[in-house]
Write a structure and sequence with these properties.
With about 350 residues, the chain is an alpha+beta fold. The protein folds into 2 domains: about 1-90; about 110-340, BirA Bifunctional Protein, domain 2 (2-Layer Sandwich). It has 11 helices and 9 strands. A 7-stranded mixed beta sheet has the order 1-4-5-9-8-7-6, sandwiched between helices. The longest helix is centred in the N-terminal third of the chain and has 40 residues, at about 50-90. It is rod-shaped, with a radius of gyration of 44 Å. The structure holds phenylalanine (PHE). Phenylalanine binds near residues 251, 254 and 309.
Length: about 350
Amino acid sequence: MSERIDQLRAEFERDLAAVEAEAGATALRDRWVGRKSGVLTAEMKRLGGLAPEERRQVGQLLNELKTGIEAAIDRLSGEFAVRREAAQLAAERIDVTLPGRREVAGHLHPITLLRQRIEDIFVSMGYQIEDGPEIETEFYNFDALNIPANHPARSRQDTFYLSERLALRSQTSTVQIHAMQRREPPLRVIAPGRVFRRDTPDATHNPMFYQVEGLLVDRGITLGDLKGTIEEFVRRMFGPQTQIRFRPSYFPFVEPGAEIDYSCFKCGGSGCRVCKGSGWIEMGGSGMVHPNVLRGVGIDPEIFSGFAFGLGLDRLCALMYGLDDIRLLYENDIRFLAQFR
Ligand code: PHE
């Protein structure tokens, strides 16, 4: 009988040596000590047919064999488990010293970047940022700004009317009125925002564009204050050598009125492509707030005076970034915008 045991042991050793994977170890366990059809289980069942003395002997041998087999399979399974874990660790290893992958984040539009630079300069000069509606009544758009009833700017060819009385604002000067109604002088505000005009789009025009309005009202304000303020602004914006000049001009809500030019930030005034050879770049309109405008919002022009100015952002943006077409600023082409990241 012990021969039979030796034979079984040898057979098991062969089976054991042939196992190559973890699943094989499980199969091996089923085949040898499985409760239903295990080889040893079957041998054990046969014990019942033996004489008592033999049964004891063989039973003992079989039990030893079974313990040995179970231990061998446990060892094998253990080895497979260790190998599996090692392989998993290797596969999932992360190098925590590697730099992280950066998510693609949005970024500010060039017009916004420019607007914020301008805001920062005026805020540091004590100005408050004011906001006003883009849809305006004729009162704010025209009447309160001393624009006469027959003025061409009121025409339906220049202004987007939404109804008899409502229109998209054609200039941020409307916010001057809101600001003076909301606050008591002395006041210093800038109002950046979108404005709308019925222009045919081309390289230098768009029916929607951006302005920054400025307004200062206090006692004893003169044209000198306006010049000094604009000079300070352009020097902070374009550098300390920047010069300005005023050209007399007409806007109904100021008296006197002037167009402001500043010396070209590119060539410094000698003439180049950016300033079209003139050495000067147009900045916008300005002037001393008209007494009629002050009176209209209940400010006594005998006591207070003020200046106002309006800057266009879009052309400035195009000049600064060397764009040959301002429409690029509104098309939201990601290939264009990504350059300002
Ligand atoms: N609102 C004027 C324009 O759009 C500019 C301006 C503002 C002129 C303030 C004078 C004072 O052209």
